[in-house]
Amino acid sequence: MPFLVLDRLTKHFGAQIAVDNVSLAVEKGEFISLLGPSGCGKTTTLQMIAGFVRPTSGAITLEDKDLLAIKPNQRGLGIVFQSYALFPHMTAAENVAFGLEMQGIDREERRRRVTEALELVGLSAFADRYPRKMSGGQQQRVALARALVIRPQILLLDEPLSNLDAKLREDMQIELRQIQRTVGTTTILVTHDQAEAMALSDRIVVMNQGRVEQIGPPHETYERPATAFVASFLGKTNQIEAEVAPGGGRASLGSVTWPIPPHHEGRVVLSIRPEKIGFADPGNGALTGTVKTRIFQGNHWLYQVDTAGGLITVIRQNSGEKVPAEGEIVGIAWNASDMGVRAVRGAMA
């Protein structure tokens, strides 16, 4: 039996449909990310779980209990907001202890649990420090400790790392995942950051215009996107329109053909991730083109190659080998198994 179930959850704000028929079953201890662009409904979904927003229709159950019948402050949920929402007049320890005080936990037990929570997030030495004297990363850890100290059934994270700089955000992603694995708390994260969702999650729920486009493990969702939106939103991707050859089984663009699953017909879109593409001698490989742009990005090179199939993005690791220059004519190649295929209007195969 799933731990948390969202069943056809829908929310209207007047004529606007913010969340449209969302269903999701979450196992105990899972780390789930709601991923999508601004306005896709992910935060509204989180707020309905938290009890801050009432659904227009649908149900939410937690361990087979109707969560909508329980007041927000009695749902046993831990929440970390984008702004952290720390009390500026309280020390780190006092902030962490606040929820325990509201629960009526006695002083000695509060002290013990606050000490454990601050140790868990690596802030034992900062117990008496006020938020204004702490960095953004330290404030984020205090907010996380405050959410975890009440021992919530579910931890809800609303873009908690978005205010951190890139290096600190990456470090905090690692720490957050390690902490979640240590305590085993079922966690739901709202984010628009694809890399963050893939780094942290057991499963990703990709949302667009209030609806779920795909649910699956990060690797599977990235490698086999179910829709054109997922293919374009979750990382970079190349899409080439081609025609299915008579008899099926191959797609063609001019004189070039590629093997595809036999059930396709008419026009299709071939989808290839940039890192799956390699260079070959001109005239060899899948396509031939001219290097239009070459950008060095530290651990890899980013290319744009002008081909008969359009502008193709290629990512090659910085291995120290000689790389093609701008203006150079090159072949590009990929394995058929790395190529997604979908109808011009339809889902990925």
Specify the CATH class of the largest domain: Alpha Beta
- CATH architecture assignment name of the largest domain: 3-Layer(aba) Sandwich
CATH topology call of the largest domain: Rossmann fold
The ordered H/E elements are: EEEHEEEHHHEHEHEEHHEEEEEEEEEE
Number of domains: 2
Average predicted local confidence, pLDDT: 92
Kindly provide the radius of gyration, computed on alpha-carbon positions and rounded to a whole number of angstroms: 24 Å
Q: For the report, how would you describe the main beta sheet? A: 6 strands, mixed
Structural class estimated from helices and strands: alpha+beta
Instruction: Give the N-to-C terminal Cα separation.
Output: 30 Å
| Overall helicity | 10-25%
For the largest sheet, list the strands in their spatial order.
6-7-8-3-9-10
Say how many strands there are: 20
Number of helices: 8
Shape: globular
CATH superfamily of the largest domain: P-loop containing nucleotide triphosphate hydrolases
